[in-house]
Amino acid sequence: MPDLSASLQSLRAARLYGIVDLGYVKPENVVTMTRALAEGGVDILQLRAKGATPAEVESLARSMLPVTRELGVPLVINDHPEVAAIVGSEGVHVGQDDDSVAKARAIVGPEIFVGKSTHSLDQAVAAQAEQADYIGFGPLYATGTKPDYVPIGLQDITRVHELVSLPIFCIGGVNEARASEILQAGARRVVVVSAFLLASDVRAEVKRLKALLP
Ligand code: TPS
């Protein structure tokens, strides 16, 4: 059973969020990738398996948890609150549907934190009103990981930090080359997907990006 107050403390301290995305990682490589990301230094890790069945997500999550627990990294399940509840992950992440935070919370109970994707200032403010525990904010840049979304750019990053007091994780096209302009624009926390998962040396890539974060 995860302990919410410990998880929320990790969430507030977190700067670098990694995602094991099955669009890039074969199921048989999920545990190895989980270890590489966590040993490299991600502060939070998400399992994102679009199109997988709940049973498949559950089995992947169960294979990741011993590694994330060993390394002290909270595990967040994308889209499947019922799986988060069954496996006892630290968090769940939901998309932009109405009431998605309340619906997820009703399923996961009081000990699992709930994050929500937002794509505009209005959505970020709404997610805070909906009592999300953190938000993702983006995609900042066009990205092959979420090809149907219009990038929102960097111009609202400072403002979103003025309007929203939750931890805000900037996402979408984040990589080492762009880190300085993203931080310059006011970001404090970032999510990295393809730049880590496609790296030839995942641990080294995570370490390099982490070293750039204040
Ligand atoms: C914490 N989301 C927005 S952009 C993107 C995703 C998956 C692609 C990033 O990939 N915030 C959180 N989790 C999520 N799943 C989302 C937002 C949704 P890349 O780094 O390859 O551009």
Automatic annotation (TrEMBL):
Q: Which Gene3D superfamilies match?
A: Aldolase class I
Record-annotated residues binding 4-amino-2-methyl-5-(diphosphooxymethyl)pyrimidine? 46-50, 78, 117, 146
Which residues make up the binding site for 2-[(2R,5Z)-2-carboxy-4-methylthiazol-5(2H)-ylidene]ethyl phosphate? 143-145, 173, 193-194
Key word Ribosomal protein present: no
**Pathway(s) where this gene product acts:** Cofactor biosynthesis; thiamine diphosphate biosynthesis; thiamine phosphate from 4-amino-2-methyl-5-diphosphomethylpyrimidine and 4-methyl-5-(2-phosphoethyl)-thiazole: step 1/1
**Cofactor requirement:** Mg(2+)
Determine if Transferase is one of this entry's keywords: yes
Q: Which InterPro entries match?
A: Aldolase_TIM, ThiamineP_synth_sf, ThiamineP_synth_TenI, TMP_synthase
Single biological process term from Gene Ontology: thiamine diphosphate biosynthetic process
Which residues are in the Thiamine phosphate synthase/TenI domain?
16-195
Instruction: Return the EC number.
Output: 2.5.1.3
Q: Which family does it belong to?
A: Belongs to the thiamine-phosphate synthase family.
Cited function: Condenses 4-methyl-5-(beta-hydroxyethyl)thiazole monophosphate (THZ-P) and 2-methyl-4-amino-5-hydroxymethyl pyrimidine pyrophosphate (HMP-PP) to form thiamine monophosphate (TMP).
Q: What is this protein called?
A: Thiamine-phosphate synthase
Question: Which species is the source of this protein?
Answer: Brevifollis gellanilyticus
Q: Which gene encodes it?
A: thiE
